[in-house]
Amino acid sequence: MDNLAQFAPIILMFVVVYFFMIRPQMKKAKQEKTFVEDLKRGDRIVTKSGMHGKILDFSEKNNAVIIETGAGKITFDRSSISMEMSKKMNEPVKQPAVKEKK
């Protein structure tokens, strides 16, 4: 029992690290994977490097996506698509409430 008391702080530290660091990272990686898998033609995206475009086609052989930009067609790896920036770009724009004057 005395040996268990010596290792309790170390065990507690591993539990805290798991629930506050490892588990959220695994959850975020799973969300990004489902986001990339759910992409379809016509979706507007932003890459992690900041390139904006619209999906034209997928290349399953290279695990890549072909996007159309203002400069032309560019092929990017699927992992280079930013989930956060793409979701922000596709959100509907909220119009500020206009107050009526009397």
TrEMBL record:
Subcellular localization: Cell membrane
Keyword list, A-Z: Cell membrane, Membrane, Protein transport, Translocation, Transmembrane, Transmembrane helix, Transport
Keyword Transmembrane helix: yes
Entry annotated with the keyword Translocase: no
Transmembrane segments: 6-22
Membrane topology: Single-pass membrane protein
InterPro entries (UniProt xref): Preprotein_translocase_YajC
One Pfam family matching this protein: YajC
NCBIfam families in UniProt: yajC (TIGR00739)
Family note: Belongs to the YajC family.
PANTHER family named in the record: SEC TRANSLOCON ACCESSORY COMPLEX SUBUNIT YAJC
Name of the protein in question: Sec translocon accessory complex subunit YajC
Organism: Autumnicola lenta
